[in-house]
Design a protein that fits this description.
With about 150 residues, the chain is α+β, with helices and mostly antiparallel strands. The chain has one domain: Ubiquitin-like (UB roll) (Roll). The chain has 4 helices and 8 strands, in the order ααββαββββββα. The strands form 3 sheets. It has a 4-stranded mixed beta sheet, covered by helices on one side. A two-stranded antiparallel sheet has the order 3-4. It has a two-stranded antiparallel ribbon with strand order 7-8. The longest helix is centred in the middle third of the chain and has 10 residues, at about 55-65.
Length: about 150
């Protein structure tokens, strides 16, 4: 944990905080320069997805209020909804106490998952079996314009 996040442990609501730039300098990015970002529907609390952000994606998200992630498979910024139209508008962003995980409160347009489901978390598991908890809202082929 960085010294800055250790210092924040004893900081109160009314205390003066460091600048956003200083906080982002102190974030604990992984070896690839990424931080996990959990997207949660702001009004219902539903956990929608987890993706990765680098500093550039996080700064763009904060600047534009439109959520932007870093696509590890494509090796570039991924603006949520750029191909599906299913955007996320940022309502708030918070770092955890260690500065190594981000929680995004968002307003999700339609499904958040590439499978066409509202949430990426739809495979429930128990000690003996697994089951699907939701059906797609939109056929993924339709969502990504792959219909002929």
């Amino acid at each position: 944990m960085s010294a800055l996040f250790k210092q924040l442990e004893s900081t109160n609501r009314d205390d003066t905080l460091p600048s956003t730039s200083d906080l982002l300098d102190a974030v604990k990015y992984n070896e690839q320069g990424l931080i996990p970002a959990i997207a949660q529907q702001f009004d219902s609390g539903e956990v929608l997805m987890m993706a990765w952000m680098n500093r550039e994606a996080l700064e763009e998200t904060l600047r534009t209020d439109r959520v932007c992630y870093y696509s590890r498979s494509r090796g570039k910024l991924w603006r949520k909804g750029e191909s599906s139209g299913q955007q996320q508008q940022l309502k708030s962003a918070t770092l955890d106490c260690d500065g190594d995980t981000l929680l995004l409160q968002v307003e999700q347009t339609g499904p958040a998952c590439h499978t066409g489901r509202r949430s990426c978390f739809y495979v429930a598991i128990t000690p003996t079996h697994a089951h699907i908890t939701s059906e797609p809202l939109i056929d993924p082929a339709e969502l990504y314009g792959q219909r002929s």
